[in-house]
Amino acid sequence: MTIEIPSRERVEATLTLPGSKSFTHRALVAAALAAGESRLSNALKAEDTELTAQALSRLGAGSRWQDSTVGVTGTGGRLRPVTEPVYLGNSGTSMRFLTALVSLGQGKYLLTGSPRLCERPMDELLAALGRLGVKAVSEKGDGCPPVVVQGGLTGGRTSLSGAVSSQYLSALLFIGPLAPQGVEIEVTGELVSRPYVNMTLEVLTEFGISHYREGYRYFNLPGGQCYQPQDYEIQGDASSASYFWAAAALTGGRVTITNLSLDSCQGDIDFLSVLARMGCLLDSSPAGLTVVGGPLQGIEVNMANMPDLVPTLAVLAAFAQGETAITGVAHLRHKESDRLAAVAAELGKMGIKVRETADGLIIQGGRPVGVVIDTYQDHRLAMSFAVAGLKIPGIVIKDPGCVSKSFPDFWEFFEKL
Question: Which is the catalytic residue, given 308, 374, 378, 399?
């Protein structure tokens, strides 16, 4: 199946977006560990978050969806044994969070997923769990899923490099408060995607968990704590907002997102500052966050704290005057696709000069032409390159349904532009 994007001269829209995928994952986990009933409003019901909810249900935390609200019956940290494999599709977040979570249970757990998920590295997390008394191994011995985890977390001190994924750290932060000895975590080297750790800590605090930290180098989760059930509202998804703000940027239009504010701890909210540097006008008001597009200029930017938006920025860079240098995102090679190679290939098909570097891309702005875009089963490529079709005719998106991973209603929202 394909979708051809109709070009538009200037887009205008005011949108209220579904809840944050990252916050929904985290709130589901926290609610599952609480003792009692939690209610999560404006939760994102998408392929990835449903995989997390289904896995948690098998571990004993029932969930009931009604539109964008989900009720969760928590386990109090006492997880049910599961003898059959736990399948997590292509959701890296689910795999990483659940790998740590099942260490709270009893018996042996096998977690697996799609062929692409089973190519994504897990060895850092498995080693860190091993230092906490958990038997956690890659079934194939290559550091990737399927993984086998023996329940029985004791806790103590462990370490992570932090160079591949902040989700390893977030996974440990969730289980630390329930470990008999608590958990201390030392992060060696630079931690990628730091804002996602802030999101995890915000959710922990909301669900009654205390912690101590020294920047992004050291974290201490005292043991013997209890997650408290909550009524928790999930804010709009800044990653999803980026596509609509990019549409305004590219067409000289105006797009307002009503359910996001500048004080959000989502790292992707900083994409607004990137758009401002490229030549857009911004407005923050009680009505929401607005981007007004203008002539775009190439920039140099480190995207380590918002790596998911690299495809979106790369598409804008293709239309900007001059060169755009994107750095700090070597770990994008381990996402749903090798996003650096995939973005470079598709922009190249559009007639744009792109060079891959060790940790990013260098893109020379030009005159892109319409082509058929391969999406590599990667939701973010489909949504990013759809934006290009607003500016030039002939952009055709293959496998448009892959957006169900994070934004099932994306195309309906896209039509509102």
Answer: 308
Q: pTM for the complete prediction? A: 0.92
Residue 383 CA to residue 390 CA, distance in Å, equals: 12
Kindly report, residue by residue over 74-88, the tens digit of the pLDDT.
Answer: 999 999 999 999 999
User: Is-contact 337 307, C-beta < 8 A?
Assistant: no
Asked if residues 28 and 63 have their Cβ atoms less than 8 Å apart, the reply is: yes
Same domain, 204 and 323: no
Closest of 364, 365, 368 to residue 355, by C-alpha? 364
Neighbours of 216 (CB within 10 A): 15
pLDDT at 291 over 90: yes
Same domain, 63 and 150: yes
Q: Is 308 a catalytic residue?
A: yes
Range of the domain at 371: 2-18+236-415
Residues 6+ away with beta carbon under 8 Å from 49: 21, 24, 25, 28, 43
Whether residue 27 contacts residue 202, with contact meaning beta carbons closer than 8 Å, is answered with no
DSSP symbols for 25-85: HHHHHHHHHSSSEEEEET---SHHHHHHHHHHHHTT--EEEETTEEEEE--TT-PPP--S-
